[in-house]
Amino acid sequence: MQGVTKKGRAFPNLPYSAVIIDSTYSRLLYAARQCFVYHTQNNRAAYLKQLQQLWAQDYNSNPVMPCLCVRTAFDLFLQVKQFPPGSEVIMTAINIKDMPFLLQHHKLRVVPVDMDPDTLEPDMVLMERLVTQRTVAILVAHLYGRIINMEPVLSLAQKHNLSVIEDCAECFSGFSHVGDPRSDISLFSFGIIKFSTSFGGGIAKVRDPKVYEKMVARHKQYPVQTCAMYLKKILKYIPLYTILHVWPFPAMVQKSREMGVDWKDTFVSFLRGFPNNLVQNIRYQPSSALLCIMAKVQSEFNPSELALQRVKCEYFLSNLPPSLKVVGTKSQVNHFWLFPVLVEKPDLFISCLAALGVDAYRGATQLNYIEPDGPNIPLGPPLPHHETLSPLTPDERYPHRCRDLIEHVVYMPVNKYVPFYMLEQMARVCRIVMLSMEGTAVHGSESMAVETCKTIKSKL
Ligand SMILES: Cc1ncc(COP(=O)(O)O)c(C=O)c1O
């Protein structure tokens, strides 16, 4: 019905991106100001105390360690534990590359375990088979704001006397979940794209007080991050925040994308924490300004913001075509930190969405699948009661489903800032894109799917 709608009106461009900075301009400016304030030792002690009180809950009273980032606390834990070189650590096979790198730095062998993309839980049958006489620890990550059931992991660890490292970097959701008290260490991140960001910072909860004391003693020997170092990060994030969240910049960025200039990779490279010399760069204590912001942001944590994110994501999910597979829909708890979907042809899917004004992205995180160290080198000697089992082949050990997930994942621009009517529009766009892609599988080339989407946009 020509003339009923102006061209492109039915599908206006949606100026939202797959990652958000969960903060406000005034908070960024407040953080910048704190870098010029003189923080006394008493102030610093007060920030630390406030954080420790927030994180000490009745159901988990493990001691609390605020730090520069998750990787700092993880590295400290590994320094203190002093696992013998060559010991094996079983880890869920998706994480940022720095986590296995730190294990290798401590001369430990990385043994990835595959995960189920629906629950994001590790394959427990495989995990049990991967335990050998050299296994010392299990590292599980709760990905994308989903929280998995720790029970099976904890009971396996208890059975074989293994440490449990619970990577909660992506699932801060307030103080009703501060990690499982039985985990040896639970790690929370407040980096720039995390919920309740303090533009850096991490929290570790450590089960064994002796390990905790040793970590604190080592931590105290680290130089303190200067306020200038923290300020430098904030100054980088101000333009980024502006571009992502301050009108009219998101729309301008989208316009430039339509004209063939895509800034996303440049933006994302801005988000990389410590591009070089990782170990050297994480061995700092947090500046007082960072501690001050962590204490402020976390004490002001508002559960309704998190609920809003969940409701919007659930709403979008309920409007999606069933043919579009969403990651982690069967996980125990879902706070939807990101909205990952799996598609057969991710680049084509993104191009089709872009043709209809939706800005989805593959590289929104640094997450990757983790390959086994020395896949053809056998693992340590089997446990006594496993001796009769035939050893796992390299193929059986390989995390195929995690690789598949990373190779096919696309992050949708769905979050608490997107209005409901735009979520509806985005879901409609997904349906059209799926149909266009299905059509080309039968009738034509991939470029035809994009052309079809462009035509749809221009005709409506
Ligand atoms: C799963 C996971 N683990 C660990 C980290 C590291 O956190 P941080 O940047 O606080 O060191 C991240 C952050 O990107 C993450 O997503």
Automatic annotation (TrEMBL):
InterPro entries per UniProt: DegT/StrS_aminotransferase, PyrdxlP-dep_Trfase, PyrdxlP-dep_Trfase_major
Entry keyword set: Aminotransferase, Transferase
GO molecular function, one term: pyridoxal phosphate binding
Classification via Pfam families: DegT_DnrJ_EryC1
Keyword Signal: no
Coiled coil (residue ranges): none
GO annotation terms (biological process): polysaccharide biosynthetic process
Record bears the keyword Cytoplasm: no
PANTHER family listed in its UniProt record: DTDP-4-AMINO-4,6-DIDEOXYGALACTOSE TRANSAMINASE, TRANSAMINASE
Protein name: UDP-4-amino-4-deoxy-l-arabinose--oxoglutarate aminotransferase
